[in-house]
Amino acid sequence: MNNVTTLQVRVKDADGYCRNWDDVLATLTFADEKDAETCGRILADAGYLVMRNYAPGCWITVFSTAEINEFPFECACGERYTKVEYARTCRKCRTYLGRNHHEVIDLRTGEEAA
Ligand SMILES: [Zn+2]
Q: How far, in whole angstroms, is CA 77 from its chain's centroid?
């Protein structure tokens, strides 16, 4: 695992999606995971589409504060879910990491979910 986190920032279309994936507004690199998360959250709250690398070649969307409240449970591969039991049985974790992971983070508190 490298400990550099990269964010890609794109402009969202009027409907909130991104049609032109080649049009990257900025690529930001962070040595500190928490700084990347904080900066990504600020940009997502401001309405940009922010993607974070969680594994080589794999990207996840950084959610805004409003979206965090809707999808607060993050599994080991970085996918986010509405319910803790969905995060614990994430299909991507099984595919990419080879097994179910029971460590789920509640993004509202930053702590492991009960
Ligand atoms: Zn997962």
A: 9
- In the reported structure, the alpha carbon of residue 93 is separated from the centroid of ligand 1 by a whole-number distance in angstroms of 4
CA distance 54 to 76: 10
**Near ion ligand 1, which residues have CB within 5 Å?**
75, 77, 79, 90, 92-93
Write down the residue that tokens 């309405």 correspond to.
Answer: 47
Whole-structure pTM value: 0.72
Q: Please give the helix or strand (H or E) that residue 70 lies within, else none.
A: helix 65-70
pLDDT tens digits, one per residue of 11-57: 988 887 778 888 899 999 999 988 998 999 999 999 999 999 877 77
CA of 77 to the centre of ligand 1 (A): 4
DSSP tag of 38: H
Strand partners, 111: 106
**Would you kindly state where each structural domain of the chain is located, as residue ranges?**
5-63, 71-112
